[in-house]
């Protein structure tokens, strides 16, 4: 698992929990906190970013990538770095993972700084992968059709059967031995997410999936000047 620290080694420990699932951290995450006051810790979750094996590797066993595995990884990282308590900063999927960690290890969390909040409740997944399809009917039909479930999931306004069946179908396709099947499934999934995000003013189309991203990271452990957005509320929820 890839990890790094930056900022003040004696500062307030703060863990960046990235979203996705699957995105990995970026160089910009180094600038989240004031480097004079915080010890910022970044890590790429299992099979993400620079962690290996990458999810694009056909040999990667995704059955070993569950919420439970990720929670154990976070706790092992905390122990490895000798951190007693840390502030968790997270967005999107990272919020779900951070909330689960805080429930499991409340004595190890000094605070939560959360944005783009999602708890991955059934109500949320139902809306994201079916309900919102009423605004994008053609894109949703394409998303539904690829796994061959047009007869099972007829309309985005339906409430049954649970949408988990469609999501599980994609999960199985993403573990197909044929890499081309995986690539097509990832492309269809991203096409749906692109449609959902298309109404956002700052929407950016996602690149084709499965190829791990290569980034050039500075070698210095220090972060550039922070925006200071947490100075007044280091344990904001």
Mean pLDDT, rounded to whole units?
86
Largest sheet, strands/sense/barrel: 5 strands, mixed
Helix and strand pattern: EEEHEHEHHHH
* Strands, total number: 5
Instruction: Point out poorly predicted stretches.
Output: 205-237
CATH architecture heading of the largest domain: 3-Layer(aba) Sandwich
The CATH topology of the largest domain, please?
Answer: Rossmann fold
CATH superfamily of the largest domain: Alpha/Beta hydrolase fold, catalytic domain
Fraction of residues in helix = 25-40%
Overall tally of domains? 2
The CATH first-level class of the largest domain comes to Alpha Beta
Distance between the terminal alpha carbons, to the nearest Å? 27 Å
Write the layout of secondary structure elements.
Layout: E1 3-7, E2 12-17, E3 38-43, H1 67-81, E4 86-92, H2 93-104, E5 109-117, H3 122-129, H4 137-145, H5 164-173, H6 179-197
Parallel strand pairs: 2-3, 2-4, 4-5
Antiparallel strand pairs: 1-3
Describe the structure.
The chain has 2 domains: 115 residues, 3-Layer(aba) Sandwich (Rossmann fold), CATH 3.40.50.1820; 76 residues, no CATH class. The chain is 31% helix and 14% strand. It is built from 6 helices and 5 strands. Strands 1-3-2-4-5 form a 5-stranded mixed beta sheet, with helices on one face. The two termini are 27 Å apart.
